[in-house]
Each structure stands twice: as structure tokens, then as C-alpha cells.
Amino acid sequence: MKLWAGRFSKEADERVNDFNSSISFDSRMYRQDIAGSIAHATMLGEQNIIAPSESETIIKGLKSILSDLDSGKLAFDPEAEDIHMFIEAELTARIGDAGKRLHTARSRNDQVALDIRLYLREAAEGLISQVKELICSLCNQAEQHTETVMPGYTHLQRAQPITFGHHLMAYCQMLLRDIDRLKDAKNRMNVMPLGSCALAGTTYPLNRERVAELLGFSSVTLNSLDGVSDRDFCIELAGAVSILMMHLSRLSEEIILWCSWEFKFIELDDAFATGSSIMPQKKNPDITELVRGKTGRVYGDLNTLLTMMKGLPLAYNKDMQEDKEAVFDAVDTAALCLKTMIPMIDTMKPIPSNMRRAAAKGFINATDAADYLTRKGVPFRDAYKITGTLVAQCIEKDTTLEELPLEDYKALCGEFEEDIYQAISLETCVKGRTVVGGPAPERVKEQIAAVRAAIQEE
Questions:
Q1: Band of residue 393 on the pLDDT scale cut at 50, 70, 90
Q2: Most buried residue among 76, 155, 229, 364 by CB atoms closer than 10 A?
Q3: 8 Å CB contact between 187 and 253
Q4: Model confidence at 361, in pLDDT bands (50, 70, 90)?
Q5: What is the b/e burial string over 201-237, where b = at least 16 CB atoms within 10 angstroms of the residue's CB?
Q6: pLDDT value at position 55?
Q7: Residues 99, 104, 109, 115, CA torsion sign
Q8: Secondary structure in 3-state letters for the chain
Q9: Which one, of 214, 219, 213, lies nearest residue 187 by Cα?
């Protein structure tokens, strides 16, 4: 019998039961539901809203259910409407009428609002931990390549010389911001809604602050309507996860390019690539392609949440049951992508010789040649034109600025001397960019140290 059956004269159609049920996806919150119920029962007993002896019996029964669910001794009933009704029905079956008192001064509306906050609080912490692991993997790779010259790109065209370590550390900065966003989302969801009941609170003398204390919340919700109808925290977390996935997708796209034969800047470990069923020479970066694809899936989850909530009047509406599948999927997808990408980054093998060759062929030291002339008093626009002409000559002769004879330099500008070759050396170009945040090896080492310190402080 349904727990709300008293108002109804007949059973719901089975099709309605199936459509209405959420046990298939909200059962994952059983630990949070039981933790919330234990805190609620504790407070009810302390406030003498129910007898302290009944509170103790309820808590003991809830703990036995938790143990049996954890061990697999107890299975979820697929016929139950949701996790809340399943646990309450199981509790009543075990301890009798005392189990019926657990729901005193509580509604499923504030109960589910509590459960999902508890669940997502842990999920956000888990994602933060994984992002830190990925940052460590990137830092470890970057530390080995603070002097590995590669071309930096704009418009996917070779632009200026940087190092592989410098490039990887750019992603660490993105991921640090992701951690901040996840922390912010976690902090804003850490407000306890239980006691809002269905929408208007209760006449019972609840101690909401006590429940918040027992469950580790920083405060309680201050409006009962908002307490049961707020899902901002789901949307905010899905938004933070979407931005995280965008960063993982950008990194994935670069890895896809880098391990192609056209670039061949890295080699993925065989354990993190796949082959072809028909082309024996293929080694495909399927992991990164899936991350790139799954990013769109997470964006869809965020859009589901935004669209679901945009037209809802206060307070609770059944539409809000759709929050869990979307936000769970966003979190699960990001966690799976991180779990797979971390060892892939750990084991990938950069190929410095190919990076150096691409840098040399890209005329990415042209700006430094122009700067060489400006330091000798040539106006920058004139220096820019002279250098551009030199690049055109190199292309025509299939050579590089480093290999072009000095007489060709002097033919265009008498200010060029033998020291031009030192000035446009790729290594010189990189090491000279010592501005804070730049690609000079000592600056990259500072970035690595700063990033490591930042995640250790978390």
C-alpha cells in the first residue's frame, strides 16, 4: 500500500506507478537518506516530539538497514516508489509502529532536498579530488619538459616558440579555476533544508540547527518555500562540471592533434589507445574522442536542468524529480572522463625532436628577428616589414631564418650582424621570455611550484 493511500479510494494504474517511480535512479542516495533520517530521529527524540526510546529504536533500525544495503543482504524493491518510501517501509517492517513515527514533522519534499544536497556535496568533493590528480599528472609531465621547445599556436597556425611544459601548465590554470567553481558550488549547497516540510514548515518545535550540526551543514535554509523548491545548487554544479568538461575537451582535442602523424608530438601508451578492425596501422585516440563527445552530453544535462526549472511556480512540483538523472549523469560522466584521462596523461610519451622540428619550420622566431632590429633603433613597423620579407625569401628557398645566410639579411638591412643567429635561436627566444607567466624555463618551474602549492592548500 502506498504511504499516501488514505486520500485515495483505489490503487493507481500500474502505468502510473511505473511512470511515477524514481527508485531506479534515486536508490543511489540510500546512505544520504538514512543519514538524514538518523539525524532527524535524533532531533525528534531530543526535542521530545517522539519518545527518546522510540528515537533510539528508529536509529538502531536505520543502521541495520544501512548495513544490510551496504553488504548486499538487502536488495532494493523495484516496486517501491522512491528511496524514501522504500527505507521507511523497510524500517516499519523491522521495528513496527515506531517506524511510522520517523516521518513526523517531515515531508518527502524537504527529505529529497536534503538527500540530494548531501549526495552532491560528496560528489563535488570527489570531483575536486580527481581534478587535483589530473593537475598533478600535468605538472609531472610539464616538469620533464620545461626546456622542450614547441610551437605555440594562434588560429592553429604556428605563432611563437614556447615549451611543452608551458603549454601543459595552461591547462593546470584552467583546472584550478574548475576546483574553485566546484568548491563554490559545494559551499552554496551546504545549507540544510529539512524542517521546511512540504512547503510551510511545521507547528512542531523542531531544532533545525541541531540537524544541520549533525549532518555537517553550515546553516539552515531561511525560507520554507525556497527550501523545498530550490535546485540552483544542481544547476550550479552542472554548470561547473560543464566548464570542467569543456577544458577536458580542449585538452582532448590537442592530444588528438598531437598524436596524429601530421603532428606526432606525443605517443599515447598502447593501454590508452585502440586499433582498427580493418586497418592494421591505426592507433586511435578513442579516449580523448569520447571525452570530446561526452562534453556535449554534459551540456545537455545542464540544459535539461535549466529548462526543467524555468517555468515552475513555487513550491515543489513533480517536474523536479527530473533533476536527479540529469545532475547524476553530469557528475558520473565527468568522473569517468577524469578517471580515464589521468593515467593516459601519466603514460603519454612526448617526442621533443618532432616539436623542435615543427618549431624551426614555422618561422615562429620572426617576431624575435623584428625585435632584434628594434633594439638597434629600427622602427618596429619597418622591422616588421623587413622580417616578413625575409620569411618570404625563406619559403621561396625552402630554408629557415636560422639557416639563411647573413648576406641575405644584410641585403635587406645593414643593422643585421652575426649575432642575429643567437637572437633568433629558438632556445634563446624561449629563455628570453621571462615575464611572469611566460615560457622561460625558470618561469614554468615557478608555475609548477605555485600550482602544486595551491592544490596542497586545498
A1: very high
A2: 364
A3: no
A4: confident
A5: bbeeebebebbbebbebeebbeebebbbbbbebbbbb
A6: 98
A7: negative
A8: CCCCHHHCCCCCCHHHHHHHCCHHHHHHHHHHHHHHHHHHHHHHHHCCCCCHHHHHHHHHHHHHHHHHHHHCCCCCCCCCCCHHHHHHHHHHHHHHHHHHHCCCCCCHHHHHHHHHHHHHHHHHHHHHHHHHHHHHHHHHHHHCCCCCEEEEEECCEEEEEEEHHHHHHHHHHHHHHHHHHHHHHHHHHCEECCCCCCCCCCCCCCCHHHHHHHHCCCEECCCHHHHHHCCHHHHHHHHHHHHHHHHHHHHHHHHHHHCCCCCCCEECCHHHCECCCCCCCCCECHHHHHHHHHHHHHHHHHHHHHHHHCCCCCCCCHHHHHHHHHHHHHHHHHHHHHHHHHHHHHHCEECHHHHHHHHHHCCCCHHHHHHHHHHCCCCHHHHHHHHHHHHHHHHHHCCCCCCCCHHHHHHHCCCCCCCHHHHCCHHHHHHCCCCCCCCCHHHHHHHHHHHHHHHHHC
A9: 219
For residues 233 and 120, is the Cβ–Cβ distance under 8 A? yes
C-alpha cell at 320: 523536479
Residue with cell 517531515: 106
Cα 367 to chain centroid, rounded = 37
CB 342 within 8 A of CB 133: yes
What's the pLDDT at 8?
52
Q: Determine the residue type at 358.
A: A
What backbone torsions phi and psi does residue 238 show, to the nearest 5 degrees?
-65, -35
Per the CB < 8 A criterion, the answer to whether 306 and 235 are in contact is yes
Q: What is the dihedral of CA 450, 137, 341, 236, to 10 degrees?
A: -20
Residue that is written with C-alpha cell 604556428 in the block: 158
Write out the catalytic residue numbers. Answer: 155, 276
What's the rounded mean pLDDT across residues 315-343?
96
Q: What is the pLDDT of residues 150-206, one digit of tens each?
A: 999 999 999 999 999 999 999 999 999 999 999 999 999 999 999 999 999 999 999
> What's phi and psi for 232, nearest 5 deg?
-55, -40
Residue 142 CA to its chain's centroid (Å): 21
CA distance 249 to 272: 16
Nearest residue to 380 (alpha-carbon basis) of 391, 392, 365, 369: 369
Q: For residues 222-245, give the mean pLDDT.
A: 98
For 51, the grid coordinates are 519518545
Q: Binning pLDDT at 50, 70 and 90, where does residue 20 land? A: low
Query: Virtual CA dihedral for 313, 14, 21, 60, nearest 10 degrees?
Result: 120
Report the distance separating Cα 308 and Cα 386, nearest Å: 60
pLDDT for position 334: 98
